[in-house]
């Protein structure tokens, strides 16, 4: 029988696994991945930019098990809980979380040295610093004006852990915290993913029940995208080996909710050209979460098969991998990961992932027990 600790390890190591496996091919399309790699099914994959000049790589290294900001931001959020020992909200995003990403150094595997996480972050994640520190805004309004993306959802899994078995509370806390970073459907995805992780801790929960949880709490375009994609995934199960067809169907569906398509690069010729890319909308959804859930459904919860197909589908491959990894890591625990993958992740990244997971297990257990005690007191009032 899986323990709470097994599942927490599964979430944290699942984060790193999906992140590191998807990172070498991030921003490539499905066709580009197939042409260059055939199919990615290992952590020991070379980065597609590996032989590019430093002005292209920006001094970073990827591939062969190296994780990115998805994992580093997840660790930063875990550290906030370790410090506060309680539930969190937007004020914590603007306080300890800012300190974690902008003032406290950690080993950054892409740099191969100790550094500040903010030095690695993409602009919409650096927005956290700009809004909370430089603009000194109301923390609950800090996410307004940001580029709408998956940046909050990609690290939100610890909130699912501290609300294990309580998806409603996970959704609410994720929204309360991530509004300090994101808004619109970027914020919505964070809430829904946290709810899915919390539900996955229910040992008797099925893949369909996890999807039902997502649909129960999701709103607007996020809900519609998840519904349409997971429905399509069920219909395609008998044809899942026809990967060209699966990707075509999935991308045709998500195009209704996310207008970027394969061209995710911010090129010079795009400057000044109006579009709906990354703008707030009640009709849109991020791509990563609906696609992750669709691949989980397609493979009926098979961790590696869902990961392989999700990553090889292209675009934001590391975050798709992370979202598959955290949901199924919570459902199956860390032993669902290959021993050699865990060993490589630990050795390559020098982040003590297992140790961090075990420390966070105790903090999450305390927070959950505090909730239980409070609920017992409330019950006595009835």
From TrEMBL:
InterPro entries: ADP-ribosylglycohydrolase (IPR050792), Ribosyl_crysJ1 (IPR005502), Ribosyl_crysJ1_sf (IPR036705). It holds the Pfam family ADP_ribosyl_GH. This is ADP-ribosylglycohydrolase. It comes from Caldalkalibacillus horti.
């Amino acid at each position: 029988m899986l323990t709470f600790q097994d599942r927490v390890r599964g979430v944290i190591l699942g984060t790193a696994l999906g992140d590191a496996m998807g990172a070498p091919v991030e921003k490539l399309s499905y066709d580009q991945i197939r042409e260059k790699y055939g199919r990615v099914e290992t952590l020991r994959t070379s980065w597609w930019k590996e032989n590019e000049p430093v002005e292209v790589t920006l001094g970073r290294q990827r591939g062969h098990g190296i994780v990115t900001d998805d994992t580093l931001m997840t660790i930063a959020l875990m550290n906030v809980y370790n410090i506060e020992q309680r539930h969190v909200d937007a004020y914590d995003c603007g306080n300890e979380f800012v300190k974690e990403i902008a003032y406290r150094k950690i080993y950054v595997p892409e740099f191969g040295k100790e550094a500040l996480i903010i030095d690695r972050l993409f602009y919409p994640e650096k927005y956290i610093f700009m809004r909370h520190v430089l603009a000194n805004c109301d923390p609950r309004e800090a996410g307004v004006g940001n580029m709408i993306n998956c940046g909050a959802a990609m690290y939100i899994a610890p909130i699912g852990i501290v609300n294990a078995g309580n998806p409603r509370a996970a959704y609410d806390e994720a929204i309360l915290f991530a509004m300090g970073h994101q808004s619109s459907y970027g914020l919505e995805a964070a809430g829904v993913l946290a709810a899915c992780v919390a539900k996955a801790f229910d040992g008797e929960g099925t893949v369909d029940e996890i999807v039902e949880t997502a649909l129960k709490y999701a709103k607007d375009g996020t809900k519609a995208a998840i519904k349409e994609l997971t429905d399509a995934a069920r219909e395609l199960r008998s044809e899942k080996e026809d990967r060209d067809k699966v990707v075509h169907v999935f991308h045709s569906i998500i195009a209704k909710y996310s207008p970027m398509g394969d061209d995710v690069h911010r090129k010079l010729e795009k400057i000044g050209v109006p579009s709906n890319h990354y703008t707030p909308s009640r009709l849109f959804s991020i791509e990563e979460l609906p696609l992750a859930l669709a691949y989980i459904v397609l493979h009926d919860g098979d961790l590696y098969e869902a990961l392989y197909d999700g990553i090889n589908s292209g675009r934001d491959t590391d975050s798709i991998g992370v979202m598959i990894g955290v949901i199924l890591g919570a459902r199956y625990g860390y032993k669902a990961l290959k021993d050699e993958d865990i060993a490589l992740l630990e050795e390559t990244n020098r982040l003590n992932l297992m140790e961090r997971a075990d420390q966070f297990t105790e903090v999450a257990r305390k927070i959950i027990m505090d909730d239980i005690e409070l609920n017992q007191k409330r019950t006595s009032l009835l």
